[in-house]
C-alpha cells in the first residue's frame, strides 16, 4: 500500500478526463502556490469555497489552472486537494508525463475510465487496501471505524510503511469514504455496513472459489447465519407485548449508557414511552423516546406530535423507534432547521443496535487459525543472512 490520502474514484475519473489538458509543471506550480498559502493552527485558512479563494489567493496561470480543474471536474475536485488526487493517479500508473508536453493517460488509465470495476479498478483495490477494507466491513456485519481499526492496523503493519495509529485511522477512513462513494459500503450514523453491490464486487475481487476453499465457504455461511438470525429476531420483536417492547428499549438505552431511564405510565404519556438522560459533550440532556411497532411507515404528524411534547418533559431532543420505516416527510422534518432534533430508528437500525450492545442477543465467536506466512518468511530470511 503506497497511498495514505486516497481519493474517491469519482474524483479520479473526473481528473483523468481533464488531465491531458495540462502538463505536469502547470499542476506542480499550483501545488507550490497553495502550499505557500497554508495557514497555521493559530491562524487557519478556509479552503471550502474555491469560487471565492481561487481568484483572491492565486494569480495568472495558477488561478486559470485551478479554476479549470474546479469547473471542468464539475466541482468534484477542490484544487486545494488536487495534489492528492494527482498523486494517486501518478503512483498507480494511470498517467505519464513527457518532458514538456501534456500529461497522457496510460493504457491502465484509459481502462480505468472505460471499465468501471474492471481489471484496473480491481488491481488498485487489491494493492491499495480497498479490498481489505471491504472485507473487514463484511466480516464485521456492522461496525464503527474504531472497531475495524485493529485489523486494519495489522494490514498496515504488514503491507505499508504506516506505523502511527492516527495515520492508520485516516487511511482507513479515506478508503471507507471511497467505498461509500461507489455504493459498496453504506454508513448509518457512525456505523458501516457492506451493501449488496459491495457483496457482489467482493465476490468479483476474489478468485472463483474451489470446493476446498473453506475460508470462502465459512464467510458465506456466517453471512447466511447472520441474516437468518436477524429474520428470527425481527419475528420475535413483532409479536412482543407492547409494554415488554418498551422495556426492551429501556434495556437498550441503558446499554448505550443512557441514565435515569424510565418507561412512562401507559396513560397520560403524551405519546412518550421512554425518558432518559444522555451525555452530549459536557452536558447531560433529557431525551424522550416514542416506540411504534406498527407495520406502516411513520409519517410526519407522528414526529410533529412528539416534538410538541418535548417541553412537558424538559427534553432537549426526541427519538422515534419503529419496526417498520419512515415516510419521506418524516425524514425531511427530523433535522428541520430551528426545530428540536428527532432521531429516527427503523427496524434494521434497532436490530443492529441490539446486536452491537448485546441486548436480547448473545454474540458467538468462531475460532480458527491461519498460517503466519510472515513468520516463516522471516525465518528463511534469517537463515539466508547466516549463510552470508
CATH fold-level topology of the largest domain: Trna Endonuclease, Chain: A, domain 1
Total count of helical runs of at least 4 residues: 17
| Name of the CATH class of the largest domain | Alpha Beta
Largest sheet data: 5 strands, mixed
- Give Rg in angstroms: 26 Å
Total domain units:
3
The percentage of residues in β strands lies in 5-15%
Shape estimate: globular
User: What is the residue-mean pLDDT, rounded to a whole number?
Assistant: 87
Low-confidence stretches: 384-388
- Structure summary, number of beta strands: 10
At CATH level 2, the architecture of the largest domain is 3-Layer(aba) Sandwich
User: Helix coverage percent of residues?
Assistant: 40-55%
Q: What's the end-to-end separation, in Å? A: 31 Å
List the strand order in the largest sheet: 6-7-8-9-10
List SSEs in N-to-C order: HHHHHEEHHHEHHEEHHHEEEHEHEHH
Features:
388 residues; alpha+beta; 3 domains; five-stranded mixed beta sheet; three-stranded antiparallel beta sheet
Topology diagram in text:
Elements: H1 9-18, H2 24-35, H3 50-57, H4 60-72, H5 82-91, E1 95-96, E2 104-105, H6 107-114, H7 119-127, H8 130-140, E3 143-144, H9 145-159, H10 165-181, E4 185-188, E5 191-194, H11 196-205, H12 214-238, H13 242-255, E6 259-263, E7 274-280, E8 283-292, H14 300-309, E9 317-322, H15 328-334, E10 342-345, H16 347-357, H17 373-387
Parallel strand pairs: 8-9, 9-10
Antiparallel strand pairs: 1-2, 3-5, 4-5, 6-7, 7-8
Amino acid at each position: 500500500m503506497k497511498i495514505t490520502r486516497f481519493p474517491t474514484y469519482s474524483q479520479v475519473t473526473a481528473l483523468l478526463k481533464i488531465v491531458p489538458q495540462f502538463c505536469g509543471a502547470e499542476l506542480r506550480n499550483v501545488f507550490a502556490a497553495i502550499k505557500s498559502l497554508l495557514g497555521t493552527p493559530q491562524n487557519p485558512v478556509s479552503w471550502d469555497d474555491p469560487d471565492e479563494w481561487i481568484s483572491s489567493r492565486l494569480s495568472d496561470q495558477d488561478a486559470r489552472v485551478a479554476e479549470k480543474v474546479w469547473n471542468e471536474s464539475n466541482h468534484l475536485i477542490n484544487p486545494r486537494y488536487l495534489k492528492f488526487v494527482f498523486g494517486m493517479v501518478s503512483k498507480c500508473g494511470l498517467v505519464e508525463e513527457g518532458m514538456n508536453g501534456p500529461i497522457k493517460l496510460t493504457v491502465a488509465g484509459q481502462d480505468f475510465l472505460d471499465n468501471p470495476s474492471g481489471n484496473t479498478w480491481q488491481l488498485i483495490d487489491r494493492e491499495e487496501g480497498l479490498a481489505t477494507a471491504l472485507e473487514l466491513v463484511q466480516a464485521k456485519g456492522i461496525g464503527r471505524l474504531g472497531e475495524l481499526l485493529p485489523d486494519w492496523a495489522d494490514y498496515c503493519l504488514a503491507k505499508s510503511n504506516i506505523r502511527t495509529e492516527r495515520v492508520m485511522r485516516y487511511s482507513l477512513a479515506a478508503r471507507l469514504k471511497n467505498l461509500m462513494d461507489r455504493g459498496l459500503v453504506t454508513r448509518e450514523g457512525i456505523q458501516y455496513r457492506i451493501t449488496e453491490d459491495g457483496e457482489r464486487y467482493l465476490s468479483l475481487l476474489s478468485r472463483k472459489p474451489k470446493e476446498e476453499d473453506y475460508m470462502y465457504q465459512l464467510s458465506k455461511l456466517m453471512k447466511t447465519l447472520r441474516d437468518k438470525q436477524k429474520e428470527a429476531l425481527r419475528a420475535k420483536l413483532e409479536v412482543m407485548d407492547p409494554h415488554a417492547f418498551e422495556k426492551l428499549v429501556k434495556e437498550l438505552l441503558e446499554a448505550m449508557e443512557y441514565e435515569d431511564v424510565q418507561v412512562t405510565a401507559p396513560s397520560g404519556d403524551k405519546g412518550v414511552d421512554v425518558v432518559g438522560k444522555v451525555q452530549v459533550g459536557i452536558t447531560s440532556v433529557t431525551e424522550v423516546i416514542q416506540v411504534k411497532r406498527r407495520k406502516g411507515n411513520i409519517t410526519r404528524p407522528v414526529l410533529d406530535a412528539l416534538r410538541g411534547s418535548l417541553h412537558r418533559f424538559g427534553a432537549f431532543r426526541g427519538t422515534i423507534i419503529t419496526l417498520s420505516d419512515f415516510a419521506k416527510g418524516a425524514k425531511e422534518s427530523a433535522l428541520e432547521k430551528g426545530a428540536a432534533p428527532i432521531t429516527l430508528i427503523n427496524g434494521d437500525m434497532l436490530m443492529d443496535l441490539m446486536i452491537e450492545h448485546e441486548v436480547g442477543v448473545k454474540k458467538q465467536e468462531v475460532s480458527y487459525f491461519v498460517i503466519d506466512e510472515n513468520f516463516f518468511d522471516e525465518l528463511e530470511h534469517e537463515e539466508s543472512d547466516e549463510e552470508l
